[in-house]
Amino acid sequence: MTVATNGDHYEPRIVGFLCNWCSYTGADLAGTSRMKSAPNLRIVRVMCSGRVDPSFILRAFQLGADGVLVAGCHPGDCHYQEGNFKALRRMTFLKRLLNDFGIDERRLRLEWISASEGEKFAKVSTEFAEQVRALGRLRLEVPEEVSAVEEVMVS
Amino acid sequence: MISLTIDGIATQVAEGTTILQAAKLLEIRIPTLCYHPLLKPFGACRVCVVEVQRGASYEVISACNTPGREGMVVSTDTARVLAARRLVLELMLARWPNVPVLRQLAAELGLEQPRFTSTLRDERPDACVLCLRCVRICEEVVGACAIGYEDRGILRRVVTPFNQESEACIACGACAHVCLTRHIRFEGEDYKGKPAEFLLGPNTAIYMPTAQAVPKVPSIDPETCIHFKTGGCQSCVQVCEPGAVNHKMVDEEIELDAGQVLVATGFDLFDATPMAQYGYGRLDNIYAALDIERMLNATGPTGGRLLLKNGQPPRAVGIVHCVGSRDENHHRYCSRVCCMYALKFAHLVKERCPQAEVYNFYIDMRAFGKGYEEFYSRVLHEGANVIRGKVAEVVQAGWSKQEEGTLLIRCEDTLIGRFREIPVDMVILCNAIEPRQDAGRVGRVFGLSRSPDGFFLERHPKLDPMATMTDGLFVAGCAQGPKDIPDSVAQASGAAARILATISKGVVEIDPIRAEIDEALCSGCRTCGPLCPYNAIEYLEDKKVSRVNSTLCKGCGTCVAACPSGAITGYGFNDAQINAELEGILTL
User: Fold this and answer.
1) Which residues of chain A does B464 touch, with a Cβ-Cβ cutoff of 8 Å?
2) Measured between beta carbons, which residues in chain B are less than 8 angstroms from residue A46?
3) Does a structural domain hold residue A5?
4) pLDDT tens profile B7-34
5) How far is A21 from chain B (nearest CA, A)?
6) Nearest CA in chain A to B583
7) Buried b or exposed e, range B221-259, using 16+ CB within 10 angstroms
8) Confidence check: pLDDT of B191 > 50
9) What CATH architecture is B515-585?
């Protein structure tokens, strides 16, 4: 896997799955409020954190992400009532699985960011970027024969 | 019906009507003292005597407790009647020479000085004249029986049982209300200045909420209504001719089916009591903005006059801006309306008390709207003083007799760079607008998000300021953030128009973002069913597959992520789209 590098300088690539109603709006608020946050986060908007299929996260790691942030509404505030609880359950299981894959579980982070928490969004994304930077580049060794498995996973 | 004649006028009245009531219907005045329309006739004072012809003889009897009889001929002002009344009054006046109501009646009868002297002569103008209306109203109407009388004849006195403080008294004030001579008074009824309603709520149990109340009907305050305390009274029922008073009415919960909701729950006024430096609730003559608003209202407790607690108009008034707003310790936001209403107060104080000095203490003057800056300069020209600086504290001024009751405002005047102490005798605090205390609960009921300041969050601050994240749910006014009346009207009109647009269209557009199950791929495992918060997924027993009801589905995608067979497609956010997006953003 290649990572954008500038000499020795390393910038982690982080994928953020943000729910449409809270976290994405929160990120928007951070932007309109002109708050500074780490530029490492690449955002994928989903309708609900409950939509985040664990396979998306694995796929993101496979495609070269060094960290994945999943953010949803605060418990009890979910626009779809309880999608964020499902995300919480899936992420908890996935973290155990990540260790088996040889991926540090700290590379996956689940956060509750409400639409009004632009400040929290900026803080979390900056903090997480720092954390992932400290963990270093994610190096996955993908044997040739696994590519068949990959096909199944993506479909 | 029976026929009788009073002072030569023939009339017909219902059976049981007393002579006094019949005369009243004919607008013939018979003087009374112990009579009260809410009470049973008592006949104690004998002032209401009239002459009744019976056959060939004439009889002088009291009108209040004599029912009319068929063919009765009554005269109310013959010489015998007047002589009898004069004698009664003479006897009463001998004992209570200075009671106004007796003196007035005596003057009407041409009586100047009584011929008698009384051993129990009482010079007080508010002496008890033993009409016993108080005792009777307490028993008959209120039903409390808290007062009675002791002893007999001329020694009779109105007392509480055993002359002790009566536990039966509910402090309704009915006895004081019916007292002829103000012998019984309600504590605090002569209290001027701080209007009673600020402290005690409405003055009567049945009241009009405001002069402009909509609907304009009075309501009953169960806390003060005698009926709810003793089960008696119901005087209002007796006097209400249409029979509109209903004591059995209770609060009820009404369930309404609504397709759209406009949340306009308003704001709370910041309570300045915790800001001890401003003395609100601790020192006299310090008012919150809404107290003053009420006081300056023409229908308010002081009739629109600006008064100090001692009933005098103020000589100097300090108006403190930004109380609780623009303050790191309370609310960081600007309350938006305070500068302008503070200037309005300055203008009104100048108008109501032209000799009074007005001081506005501001941080920044925010005259932001159409015509506002012009109003600001107008108030300045009217002679209001404006001091740029936050008030440090408000304290009681010195202790000399002259300064008694005045206040001292300590502040920094940042424009001259000096510390100043300004004596005033009234302080008006411009409290911040804050979210309703139950905004969190309302937000949860409707699924509304709130911004960091606690107000409800709009869908977009610029492009969609009245809609919320939930379809069919709108916000308007101070529930969404501090704003003045023009802004609230604009926002609410916009929201109402949006609602009406949907109603007139007759159909609701739903987002195309929803899930669909490919029946060919579905294994019928029913993992998705219980995940759906909207019960949009039904299981088809015949085909052994699940199906999404696309009208109920909101497109959250929880089922899409959970389907082990990959049979569910989330339109707009399907797996292929998201994977492609991931590839795209991770290419570089």
Assistant:
1) none
2) 557, 573, 578
3) no
4) 999 999 998 899 999 999 999 999 999 9
5) 7
6) A63
7) eeebbbbebbebbbbbeeeeeeeebeeeeeeeeeeeeee
8) no
9) 2-Layer Sandwich (3.30)
ipTM of model: 0.85
DSSP state of B467: B
Q: Which residues of B532-562 are buried (b: 16+ CB within 10 A; e: fewer)?
A: bbeebbeeeeeeebbebeeeebbbbbbbbbb
DSSP string, B242-308: T----TT----------S-EEE---EEEPP-TT-GGG-TTTSTTEEEHHHHHHHHSTTSTTTT----
* Residue B194 confidence class, pLDDT cut points 50, 70, 90: very low
Is residue A7, in this structure, part of any structural domain at all?
no
Vertex A128: Cα angle to A24 and A71 (nearest 5): 30
Please give the average per-residue pLDDT across B505-532, as a whole number: 89
pLDDT digits (tens, 9 = 90+) for B242-293: 999 988 888 899 999 998 999 999 999 999 999 999 999 888 889 999 989 9
Q: What is the pLDDT of residue B380?
A: 95
**CA torsion through residues B318, B319, B320, B324, sign:** positive
Min Cα distance B588 → chain A (Å) is 7
Structural domain of A78 = 12-154
Please judge whether B558 and A117 are an interchain contact, meaning their C-beta atoms are less than 8 angstroms apart.
no
What's residue B249's pLDDT?
86
pLDDT band at B192; cut points 50, 70, 90: very low
Query: What are the residue boundaries of the structural domains of chain B, listed by start?
Result: 2-77, 128-246, 269-434, 435-505, 515-585
pLDDT tens digits for B155-180? Answer: 899 998 888 888 888 888 888 889 99
Q: Chain B window 432-461: which residues touch A at a Cβ cutoff of 8 Å?
A: 444, 447, 449-452, 457, 461
pLDDT tens for residues B391-405? 999 998 876 666 677
pLDDT of B213-243, one tens digit each?
Answer: 888 888 888 877 888 888 888 888 888 899 9
Q: Give B48's pLDDT tier (boundaries 50, 70, 90).
A: very high
Tell me which chain A residue has its CA closest to the CA of residue B565.
Answer: A155
Mutation choice for B interface testing from A18, A19, A53 by most B CBs within 10 A: A53
* CB contact at 8 A, B514 and B554: yes
Residue B201 has pLDDT above 80, yes or no: no
Within 8 A of B588 by CB-CB distance, chain A residues are: 4
User: From the CA of B529, how many Å to the nearest CA of chain A?
Assistant: 14
- A18 assigned to some structural domain: yes
Contacts of B450 in chain A (CB under 8 A): 116
CATH class of the domain defined by B2-77: alpha beta
CA angle (A50 as vertex; A49, A54 as ends), nearest 5: 90
Residue A1 Cα, gap to closest chain B Cα (Å): 11
CA angle B227, B230, B234 (to 5 degrees): 30
State the CATH number of the domain containing residue A111. Answer: 3.40.50
The alpha-carbon gap from B237 to the nearest alpha carbon of chain A, in Å, equals 50
Number of domains in chain A: 1
Query: What homologous superfamily does CATH list for B269-434?
Result: FAD/NAD(P)-binding domain (3.50.50.60)
Tell me which of B444, B446, B585, B587 to substitute to probe the interface with A (most A C-beta atoms closer than 10 Å): B585
d(CA B96, CA B519): 102
* A142 part of a folded domain: yes
Q: Does B470 touch chain A (CB under 8 A)?
A: yes
